[in-house]
Amino acid sequence: MREPTGRRIRRVTDPLPALRLEGVSRRFGPVTALADIDLSVATGEAVLLLGHNGAGKSTLLRLAAGLVRPTAGRVTIGRAGGREVPSAARARIGYLGHRTFLHEHLTARENLELYASLYGRRDAAALAERWLARVGLERAAERVIRGFSRGMMQRLALARALIHDPQVLLLDEPASGLDPEGRRRLVEIVGEAHAAGGTLLVVSHDPALGLEIARRVVVLRRGRIVTDDRADSRSTADWALAAGGVAR
Amino acid sequence: MRAWRQVVAILVADARREARTGEALMPMLVFALVVLVVSGFAFDLPALLADQRRRLVPGILWIAIAFAMLVGQARHLLADRDEDRASGLLCAPIDRTLLFGVKWLEGILLGIALQVVLIPLAVVFFDLDLGGAWLGLAAILLACTAALSALGTLLGSVVARLGRGEALLAILVLPAAAPVLIAGVKTTAVLLAGEPLASAAPWPAVALGTAVIYAAVGALLFESVLME
């Protein structure tokens, strides 16, 4: 079943969590980045992950994306899991991190076609065309991205993360570098993905952005979950304070 | 079918990057040609007897090839650190052993591209008579290039993962490359003397064996090296 934009609509009937971390710890030498994390995110749920710098938010996302191996514990995406995220499970994940993963000497179109092909999509050219339009870069499609602004790179990186229609979206500071128009598109695109049944785990220093999408907030402090509650249980300012930030 | 599409996509992307920047092949060619020219003048090769040239040229050729490949692979692999593109590949549902295979193949292709230019120039510059040695030379070049590429791919990934530079790569690669280079030099010397490949035993087998061992070790360890 597809919505008018051509995006596939998934039915939220799977009782299994889309993402589950069980007893997950991760140490980098003497530093404990994550300690005994238990987190389950239901299919179709949107969760905002808050915390101060070094709380372990980005490590948790990289771990769920299969880029970091846990020191202890188990990561499960859908039905597939273990100490590492298996290849088949990685196909279900769309990850946007601090770095764009983009090739600066390729054009915007070539970058998107590359990632669509890496995720096994036969319709790479059509997908690239569609996503260039969705992130407002159709006029820059044939430009080598080396000259792109930070905001344009971030838009293209968002398209890169979503081009294979992932079921689990892991977004680390997705609004970084975006202007108001870019931020509006981001909220719209991520909101559509969520409405279509996508599961979201969003890291943001800006609770206002995350709370536009998320219905649940998890706060990390020194690698441990200290709060896990409904988003509407507190005001945006209170969430900012709970995360160790400054009220906006 | 999906694996085939993934391999082609990575090869095409990296070939485009190389075609637009020449960041790996150009320094390789410049380095190798400088070694060739300087060695030619240093040893006054044109003035030597054919037999004396045949003793010197294999060493010069393999030093040029090994160091040029080291330069090229370092540029090629360490470029994936920009914007953390290596993580982009690791996120994708691609078998990580296959990923090693693709990067290994790219190293071999860079080596072949270098040799396609270098060997004919060496033949002209050093006035070599290869006679019927072309096939044997191609075989030993391919075996040694495969071994050097496997080493460079694995150890280049270690260096990239550690966030270190090309100097550490040289320190790690060159000792392990020694048996490959000795096999290359010994076999090339036999071939330039007009003898068949079989006469160079056991060196062709050493070259092939190291290629197989380094590739197998690389395929086994690549994922562990790349993962945080």
Helix and strand topology:
The complex is a heterodimer of chains A (248) and B (228).
Chain A: E1 17-28, E2 31-42, E3 46-50, H1 57-64, E4 72-77, E5 80-82, H2 87-90, E6 93-96, H3 108-118, H4 124-134, H5 150-162, E7 168-172, H6 180-195, E8 199-203, H7 207-211, E9 216-221, E10 224-230, H8 236-242
Parallel strand pairs in A: 3-8, 3-9, 6-7, 7-8
Antiparallel strand pairs in A: 1-2, 1-4, 4-5, 9-10
Chain B: H1 2-21, H2 25-42, H3 50-78, H4 85-91, H5 96-125, H6 134-162, H7 166-192, H8 203-226
Any overview of this molecule?
- The complex is a heterodimer of chains A (248) and B (228).
- Chain A is α/β, with parallel strands linked by helices.
- Chain A is built from eight helices and ten strands.
- Chain A has helices spanning 57-64, 87-90, 108-118, 124-134, 150-162, 180-195, 207-211, 236-242; strands spanning 17-28, 31-42, 46-50, 72-77, 80-82, 93-96, 168-172, 199-203, 216-221, 224-230.
- Chain A has a six-stranded mixed beta sheet with strand order 6-7-8-3-9-10, with helices on both faces.
- Mean pLDDT of chain A is 87; it is low at 1-13.
- By secondary structure, chain B is mainly α.
- Chain B has one domain.
- Chain B is 81% helix and 0% strand.
- Chain B is built from eight helices and no strands.
- The radius of gyration of chain B is 18 Å and the shape is globular.
- The two termini of chain B are 29 Å apart.
- The A-B interface holds A 62, 65-69, 84, 87-88, 90-91, 93, 95, 97-106, 110, 113-115, 117-120, 122, 124, 144, 160 and B 2, 5-6, 8-10, 12-13, 16-17, 20-21, 82-85, 87-95, 227-228.
Name a few traits of the molecule.
heterodimer; A: alpha/beta; four-stranded antiparallel sheet; 8 helices; 30% helix; globular; B: 228 residues; mainly alpha
